[in-house]
Amino acid sequence: MEKDAIVDRIKSLKKEKNAVILVHNYQRPEIYEIADFIGDSLELSRKAAETKADIIVFCGVRFMAETAKILSPEKTVLLPDKDAGCQMANMVTADDVRRLKSENPKIPVVSYVNTTAEVKAESDICCTSANAVKIVESLNSESVIFVPDINLGSYVQQMTGKNIILAHGFCYAHMHIFPDMITGLKKHHPEAVVIAHPECRKDVRDMADEILSTGGMIKFAKESPANEFIIATESGMVERLKREIPYKTFYPVESSVCINMKKITLEKVLGSLENEQYRIEIEENVQKKAYAALMKMLNL
Ligand code: 13P
Ligand code: SF4
Asked: Whole-angstrom Cα distance, residue 152 to residue 41?
């Protein structure tokens, strides 16, 4: 089928089935075209909690679709590719969190939303890259267990001055952005403002003018008087920035690609709506506990 025909069919099925399509910023540009909403993890979890649709199709990775299901257990939540997982989320298991808790009794657990539902269920509160510092600051404890990302965790430590007990997760797409790549881009574009995602390594964060979530990058680039930006995050983010702010220039770190985000295609979204696949199911007990941790975050 031609691209336009697939898009038309997706749009009519969406209406027919009262479905909503949520799309993460790192998705392919053609997926933006069928989105009801495009955003970062925090914005998408808010939308997932609010929507009145019967079906949520999540164009992102598994933890994002799971978050939608945890917040709306009565809804059908679909992930168009069953193998679109987040490698970082899979690095730290619920057993790892239980071990950290038994080694550090009475210390609250903050889990980044890039975790499985089981890990969220073991946590006191969730956070996203947009609100991690605020969430940790809000806790009445000088020590905090933070899972899974060592980079976001070390950034939180730097910003809050708290004792952050780290796990061992990281994002390969961000971990492989190195300082010499930023230096190279800076050499060619000396006027460009450097914006880095907090999942980047500390030596890269130290070179950045701003450290922001993907949603924060759009807001900042729109409001900034600067016209050129080096974007140290998954390279697809630059497509989103170009779409929102076409009159400014954005330089990606080309080698930073999340292969799982890119597994979602228009054909798979159509297949997902037609066959109502792949359904996200979460065990009730896990859903209830994970819901409490997510709602604590959303209520803050
Ligand atoms: P954001 O919360 O900034 O959208 O980031 C999610 C993510 O997976 C980054 O790799
Ligand atoms: Fe996970 Fe990294 Fe992909 Fe984000 S970019 S979804 S953290 S693997």
From this structure: 14
Q: Is 226 exposed, middle or buried (0-12, 13-18, 19+ CB in 10 A)?
A: middle
Length of the chain measured in residues: 300
Tell me the C-alpha distance between 8 and 110, whole Å: 42
pLDDT digits (tens, 9 = 90+) for 205-230: 999 999 999 999 999 999 999 999 99
Are the beta carbons of 99 and 160 closer than 8 angstroms? no
Residues 6+ apart with CB under 8 A from 274: 13
The number of beta carbons lying within 10 Å of the beta carbon of residue 76 is: 16
- Ligand 1 atom nearest residue 261's Cα: 8
Question: What pTM, to 2 d.p., does this model score?
Answer: 0.96
The finding on whether 114 has its CB within 6 A of some atom of ligand 1 is yes
Cα–ligand 2 centroid distance for 283 (angstroms): 24
Q: Give residue 106's region: left, alpha or beta (phi > 0; psi -120 to 50).
A: left
Q: CATH 3.40.50.10800 in the chain: give the residue spans.
A: 3-85+261-280, 88-170, 173-252
How many CB atoms lie under 10 A from the CB of residue 5?
10
User: What CATH number belongs to 3-85+261-280?
Assistant: 3.40.50.10800
Burial profile 6-26: b = 16 or more Cβ within 10 angstroms, e = fewer: bbebbeebbeebebbbbbbbb
Reading the block at residue 146, the tokens are 């933070």
The pLDDT value recorded for residue 198 is 98
Question: From the CB of 258, is ligand 2 less than 6 Å away?
Answer: yes
Q: Has domain 88-170 been given CATH number 3.40.50.10800?
A: yes
Q: Which of 154, 169, 167 has its CA nearest to residue 206?
A: 154
CATH class, 173-252 region: alpha beta
Both tokens of residue 116?
Answer: 């499985």
Q: How far, in Å, CA of 69 to CA of 51, rounded?
A: 12
DSSP code for 298: H
